[in-house]
Write a structure and sequence with these properties.
With 153 residues, the protein is mainly α. Helices cover 64% and strands 0% of the residues. The protein contains 8 helices and no strands.
């Protein structure tokens, strides 16, 4: 699934929009992805764009100043580097606590053996892309160059 999401971002980012589900399924099949993997990725993407996950959280969470403690299952799925990146995004003002929770939920729903940091970055990119917030070229630099420097120190 991760590879399909990368493929979508690489092939449709500049165009600003993905084709309909049937066309996308055909294109992904022609690109060599399996039917099961395509179905799983499109379902995840549909859930992602519908924002139905936000119904599980109070809107008051946006202004929360509480600390986030990770459950053992979350710590197993999101390694220390991934949790550090999420904290960086919050401290940089890129995520509020509600967006953080939605990010964690989305990352936990992703399958694959990729590192949690890669998944987190992809989810953040997709989220900013669907909200048309990638128009500022400094955002990518702030997210990925600055965060990598931060994580090395």
């Amino acid at each position: 699934m991760y590879e399909i999401l990368i493929y979508l971002f690489e092939n449709y980012f500049d165009k600003g929009d993905c084709p309909d589900s049937a066309t996308l399924t055909h294109k992904l099949t022609m690109a060599g992805f399996g039917e099961n993997e395509i179905c799983q990725a499109l379902t995840w993407l549909s859930d992602f764009t519908s924002q139905k996950d936000s119904e599980h959280y109070s809107s008051a969470l946006v202004d929360s100043t509480s600390l986030r403690w990770y459950a053992p299952s979350e710590m197993e799925a999101i390694d220390i580097e991934g949790r550090g990146f999420i904290l960086f995004l919050e401290q940089a003002g890129i995520l509020n606590p509600l967006q953080r929770e939605l990010l964690i939920d989305r990352v936990l729903k992703m399958d694959g053996s990729n590192a949690s940091l890669e998944k987190i970055k992809l989810v953040v990119l997709l989220d900013l892309w669907t909200q048309n917030q990638l128009t500022d070229p400094d955002i990518l630099e702030t997210l990925f160059i600055a965060s990598n420097t931060h994580l090395r120190h």
